[in-house]
Amino acid sequence: MQLSYDPKYNIAYILFKEKKEKVNSIKLSEDIVVDISSDGTIYGIELLNAKKQLKGKKQKRLTLRNNSTGKEIEMPF
Fold first, then answer.
1. Is there a contact between 35 and 24 (Cβ–Cβ < 8 Å)?
2. Residues 6+ apart with CB under 8 A from 30
């Protein structure tokens, strides 16, 4: 899984799987688009207005947590 962020356009993309086939982009809301294949595999989720989607108003860092190990990585956002 990979999380990428474009600060110029304030768009984040969560990539679950490399696209090896044609995917359909389904707009779930004004700020969320899901890329899904015909067999139901989710390849990624695009977050428009990403800062609003990924953090609260007071939060200045993004925390990635591995629930199985308990390890966390923080990065500025």
1. yes
2. 48, 49
41-70: average pLDDT: 81
pLDDT at position 59 is 63
pLDDT of residue 36: 95
Say if CB 46 and CB 40 are below 8 A apart: no
- Per-residue model confidence (pLDDT) at position 27: 97
**DSSP secondary structure, the chain, as one string:** -EEEEETTTTEEEEESS---S--EEEE-SSSEEEEE-TTS-EEEEEEETHHHHHS-SS--EEEEE-TTT--EEEEE-
